[in-house]
Write a structure and sequence with these properties.
This protein has 264 residues and is an alpha/beta fold. The chain has one domain. 48% of the residues lie in helices and 18% in strands. An 8-stranded mixed beta sheet has the order 1-7-8-2-3-6-5-4. Helix 6 packs antiparallel against helix 7 and helix 8 crosses helix 9.
Amino acid sequence: MNPTVVLTGRPGGTTHLSVEALSHLPPELRLIGGLAVLCRVGVPHRATVDLDALTRDLDGFDPALQRLALSTTGGGQYVMPGQLDLDVIDVSPDSAEQLVAVLAAEGPLSPLELAVVGHTWAHDTATPVTITVVDESGAPLISGVERLVASTAGLVAMKATTVPLRASSKPEKRASDLYDLARLLVNATGADELRAAPRVLADDVLASLQGWFVDPRGRDRTYREIRRFDTAGLDLDDVADAVGDLAADLAADLADDPADDPAG
């Protein structure tokens, strides 16, 4: 049986409309973004006003998405009923492991290539979740929406490889990704599943997390960046401890299987 997530929202509010729109999308799409983080964190999180998804072979789904959308600008961008923006990212037809094998043959992976691998791995490790939205009194607004949702580890990998690509002209996007990462690391389960990712991806993600949440200078900058969000209950010491646990998991995995070491 799929795990069930119960979200609270107002009738006709963003959460209600987002899950309503989600219920009509092709089931092959994998949910990412703020709503996916909310599903994994399971506690009140930052508001989200759009939908983000991953798919393979977007061209095959585009006609169906255009029929559902109010408008579209192409390139995987649609405006859905309720004036919700839907962004669909088309991932590689190859698996993350196959991508790494091909890209690594040309030399060290660039940040953009790591992001491509991260998105592909997040797509392929998504798991089914049943989503229900209730109002403040507990009355159901929409029930039993079954969707594939990026796992905690998939979201961590995807966001950690996206932050370095964020343009300086959009600091709010970088800040929201860092905030999401912090909440996922301390409030969700499954980050240790990153040990199943291609080693080059897992190592890059861990190095980034240590730079943002463990290194004193990096953690100070992260704190300044995420202050725009409600940080009550978000202790960066807890986040640093979670990153330390993740580092221990990955180190133990490498010790168990030294052949997994790209340098070995």
